[in-house]
Amino acid sequence: MPASSPTHLVLIPSYNPGPKVLATVRAARAQWSPVWVVVDGSTDGSAESLTELARNDPGLRVLVLPQNQGKGAAVLHGITLAAQAGFTHALTMDSDGQHPEQLIPAFMAASQATPAAMVLGKPVFGPEAPALRVNGRKVSNGWANLETLGMGIGDSLYGFRVYPIAPLIQVMQGTRFMRRFDFDPEAVVRLCWAGVWPINIDAPVRYFTPQEGGVSHFKYLRDNVLLSWMHTRLFIGFVLRLPLLLWRRVASR
Ligand SMILES: Nc1nc2c(ncn2[C@@H]2O[C@H](COP(=O)(O)OP(=O)(O)O)[C@@H](O)[C@H]2O)c(=O)[nH]1
Ligand SMILES: [Mg+2]
User: Fold this and answer.
1) In the structure, which protein residues have their CB atom closer than 6 angstroms to any atom of ligand 1?
2) CA of 215 to the centre of ligand 2 (A)
């Protein structure tokens, strides 16, 4: 029996996820109830197959956005409805089989023990992980730790994490960014600024070849331009908040 919670749900944003989506959602459901999937304007028939799966499973809810809006927008759609339904925390994970669904209970337990914090997955890469993705994130992590004055972000990009919903909605309502691939790093930095401290837990990440059913919508040039622009505006935000961050640093000693 999967663990079930009235406060913590699993939220899976999904955009043309490839052949692993049904197995991924089933594996998440085997660990947790409820699981919600936000189908983000997918054109691959996954909305239909997931809706069919949910028909016989009261622990699974499928929300369908008619047009693609981006990962952050899909998460915002899900957490807004989740908050209305009384949930306080959401574990986000990808729909393409890359994330360790067996760790859902441990991440939820960490969040339940410290509800004011966010619980961040710290990726443990296998030998198959592309060097470009492994090394590229070091740049984003360096910036994120500078922008938060070393509040302890283990990884800025990994989407396997538990967010407290109310501060995340508040942070997202305050900006028109964070709607696409800039969601994960901007969310951790802005939540740190809002006083939500990170807890880091190691979590393996899997990379699949296209033959194994691996799909990625990460576009190296487009998304790195998006991330560079994101860190530029976060750096400006950091400079403006420097007195607050320094004061908090001193006060926490
Ligand atoms: N890239 C992208 N992912 C989206 C979008 N909407 C939802 N997602 C989901 O966000 C997650 C991460 O996307 P993915 O392409 O796997 O990125 P990668 O794992 O970093 O290569 C997956 O679960 C996607 O299905 C979108 O518009 N673009
Ligand atoms: Mg992926």
Assistant:
1) 13-15, 17, 40, 68, 70-71, 74, 94-96, 98, 159, 181, 216-218
2) 6
Tell me if residue 77 falls in helix, strand or coil: helix
Q: Report the predicted TM-score, pTM, of the whole model to 2 decimal places.
A: 0.96
How confident is residue 152, by pLDDT bands cut at 50, 70 and 90? very high
Ligand 1, from 71, 128, 205: best to mutate by most atoms within 8 Å of Cβ? 71
Pairing type for strands 35-40 and 89-92 reads unpaired
Superfamily, domain 3-251 = Spore Coat Polysaccharide Biosynthesis Protein SpsA; Chain A (3.90.550.10)
Sign of the CA dihedral with 94 first, then 97, 102, and 103 last: negative
Rama region for 182: left / alpha / beta (φ>0; ψ in -120 to 50; rest) = alpha
Report yes or no: 114 and 199 within 8 Å, Cβ to Cβ. yes
CA of 188 to the centre of ligand 1 (A): 17
Protein residue closest via CA to atom 12 of ligand 1: 94
Q: Among residues of the chain, what percentage have pLDDT more than 90?
A: 92
Task: Report d(CA 11, CA 236) in Å as an integer.
Answer: 31
- Tens of pLDDT, residue by residue over 140-149, are 999 999 999 9
Domain ranges of the chain: 3-251
* Helical H segments across 85-182, by residue range: 104-113, 131-147, 165-173
Q: Is the pLDDT of residue 26 over 90?
A: yes
The residue to which tokens 């998006």 are assigned:
226
**Rounded Cα gap, residues 47 and 36, in angstroms:** 12
The number of the ligand nearest the C-alpha atom of 63 reads 1
Residue 248 Cα to ligand 2 midpoint, Å, equals 35
